[in-house]
């Protein structure tokens, strides 16, 4: 079973949200928690889509997580059960966008969501105008540089 209790939060669905977010993004729960936005994102989704729709998505996710015993099994189940149904596919894609870009339906959740978008980590970059790369970072060759 691929699901763990997260931060002793009483809302079981929060744990499911974090576990499925880990699967959808490819980032660990610790990395997602480190953004400081996990609770904010969870609450934002709850207030921006119908609760029954989101809970339905989380119940499907819960079943997938409970019945998967390897990462390959989990990946196949997510593809077969989440991405094959337009209703759950839309929510999954929105969750991915939320974590990577910090946006929900094209709008930033808050100022921190821009700074902490996973896209910056993937690009080995920093969000312009929001987070500086660090003192003397200009003197170090960029990661994956071909120059």
Describe the protein in words.
The structure is a single chain. The protein is mainly α. It has one domain. Helices cover 59% and strands 3% of the residues. The chain has helices spanning 12-25, 29-34, 38-48, 51-67, 71-82, 86-101, 111-115, 118-123; strands spanning 103-104, 107-108. Strands 1-2 form a two-stranded antiparallel sheet. Helix 1 packs across helix 4. It is globular and about 50 Å long. Residues 5-9 have low confidence and may be disordered. It comes from Chryseobacterium hagamense. Pfam families: FAD-SLDH. This is Membrane bound FAD containing D-sorbitol dehydrogenase.
Strand order of the largest sheet: 1-2
How much helix, percentage-wise, in residues?
Answer: 55-70%
Number of E-type strands: 2
The tally of structural domains comes to 1
Overall pLDDT metric: 88
N- to C-terminal distance = 45 Å
Which shape, going by the Cα principal axes?
globular
Strand-pairing-aware structural class: mainly alpha
Strand content: under 5%
Computed CA radius of gyration, to the nearest angstrom: 17 Å
- Please mark out the parts with pLDDT under 50 across 5 or more consecutive residues, or reply none: 5-9
Q: Please, how many helices? A: 8
Major sheet, described briefly? 2 strands, antiparallel
Q: Can you write the helix and strand succession as a string? A: HHHHHHEEHH
Element layout with pairings:
Layout: H1 12-25, H2 29-34, H3 38-48, H4 51-67, H5 71-82, H6 86-101, E1 103-104, E2 107-108, H7 111-115, H8 118-123
Helix pairs in contact: 1-4, 4-5
Overview in brief:
With 147 residues, the chain is mostly helical. The protein contains eight helices and two strands, in the order H-H-H-H-H-H-E-E-H-H.
């Amino acid at each position: 079973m691929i699901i763990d209790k997260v931060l002793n939060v009483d809302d079981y669905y929060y744990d499911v949200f974090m576990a499925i977010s880990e699967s959808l993004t490819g980032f660990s729960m610790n990395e997602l928690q480190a953004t400081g936005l996990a609770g904010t994102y969870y609450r934002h989704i709850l207030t921006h889509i119908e609760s029954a729709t989101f809970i339905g998505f989380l119940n499907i996710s819960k079943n997938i997580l409970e019945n998967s015993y390897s990462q390959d099994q989990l990946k196949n189940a997510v593809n077969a059960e989440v991405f094959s149904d337009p209703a759950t596919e839309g929510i999954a894609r929105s969750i991915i966008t939320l974590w990577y870009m910090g946006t929900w339906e094209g709008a930033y959740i808050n100022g921190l969501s821009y700074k902490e978008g996973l896209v910056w980590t993937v690009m080995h970059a920093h969000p312009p105008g929001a987070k500086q790369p660090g003192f003397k970072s200009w003197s170090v060759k960029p990661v994956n540089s071909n120059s």
